[in-house]
Amino acid sequence: MLETKSTDDLNAAFGDFMRAFDAFKEGNDERLSQLERRAGADVVTTDKVDRLNRVLDETRRVVDDLALKAARPHLGSPANQGPRSTVALQHKAAFDAYVRTGDATGLRDLEAKALSIGSNPDGGYLATEELETRVNRGVRNISPVRAIAQIRRVSGSVYKKPFAITDAATGWVAETAARPETSTPTLAELAFPTMELYAMPAATSALLEDAAVDIDEWIADEVQGSFAAQEGTAFVTGNGTARPKGFLDYTKVANASWSWGNIGYITTGTAGAFPASNAGDKLIDLVYTVKSGYRANGTFVFNRATQAVIRKMKDGDGNYLWQPAAKAGDASTLMGFPVAESEDMPNIATDSYAIAFGDFRRGYLIVDRAGIRILRDPYSSKPYVLFYTTKRVGGGVQDFDAIKLLRFSV
Asked: Are residues 124 and 219 in the same domain?
């Protein structure tokens, strides 16, 4: 019954979104018609289009939230857990006792049996597999870059990856001709250290004493939003010090002078704006700056303010370049490529890199160290109980040719 209601709400919200988009197109068409007939659009019409643009963003946010809730599994449901080992059941029971009452005896016994040397009362205890899965899935759904990047799960503190900057030399040769020795590929080693990310939700004694509350689910819901927000910023603009290195923090060079280790860009030709005419051509130029091998899986990344500008653009046949998702939960598209909306991308301004495009799954790597730790703290903020929750995450560009930027400058 609840599932049916959730589906109905999602369908209704998606219907509202599509109606808002139709109203936006009608208003923007009127604005463009006024621009063609006279020097400028009517102020009332321009305000109407801007207002509809905001409504479109709000309805899209409602649809995304409902789609996320519909896809979220319930941790307490046996149907979603499948067969579980005795150790996993013991861990869940011991972890539940620790979170609710502070009794860590069960967790210490389990770690002693497993000869674990990484957990201790000062550093907290490993959370259950269900909680870790729920947090990671929730963060992936919320964090725009995590949803499109490649993710590696490791057990160590640093992930090292060799990468071929140049391929081995090859060539054609006659059947009986000599085979000259070919040059070997040039390799580079990329290191992705994992950094500690933390959140500290607070609970009341009444909540912890309520046996009907699924503690794993409660902690996961509390921390995943905070983790996603911090990660989202780091993956875009992080400086690599005590956090991942964002793709906008690498050295940026004009694409004509691109070399390994840098991120290439092209310019709009206009400071702080798209060109006054044929603005969409710059988006086409950006797409074709990316090599064909990456382009097929390309994704646009920009923030909501930039999206509001792009929504008004049309091609030469009068079709809107930006199109809404075909169904709830899918990404909007720009010229047929999916759009990832990241509020950590800069606004359109002079010399800003407001739009990125490329194959982020090949271009950007996120490294998750296995395990989420939780330290129960009933003393620091009485009468609340704090849960110091940590995970280790790293990230950085792994293929510098896969991501390109659009710079709003001459």
From this structure: yes
